[in-house]
């Protein structure tokens, strides 16, 4: 299925199927990022998922290693009532132009889960 995203400053948000894309121009790419690189990263990350899963939110993270590119994904199945199957995924690219990514973390989110992210970004 086709998925539409809004991307702003390293974060992407899935648009519901009935919501039209925003009419405003896309934000300027950060200088360290090639045009379309974030879209390619999203496409590669979606290939890691099961066919029934969808990325609800993707956020590019700062990495401790200078060349590594990291994302935190909020993923859940597209069927109604599947909120119980929501998970956080950590995805790594070896460098900005990498043509494959690896899954570094899987954290299922249960109804009583509390997640605290520490840091300045």
Automatic annotation (TrEMBL):
Ranges of Pro residues composition bias in the record: 18-33
TM annotation in the entry: none
Chain segments carrying region Disordered: 16-37
Protein name (Swiss-Prot/TrEMBL): SSH3 phosphatase
Coiled coil: none
GO annotation terms (biological process): negative regulation of actin filament polymerization
Species of the source: Emberiza fucata
PANTHER family named in the record: PROTEIN PHOSPHATASE SLINGSHOT HOMOLOG 3 (PTHR45864:SF4), SLINGSHOT PROTEIN PHOSPHATASE HOMOLOG (PTHR45864)
Lineage: Eukaryota, Metazoa, Chordata, Craniata, Vertebrata
One Gene Ontology molecular-function label: phosphatase activity
Sequence ranges assigned to domain Slingshot N-terminal in this UniProt record: 41-121
Superkingdom of source: Eukaryota
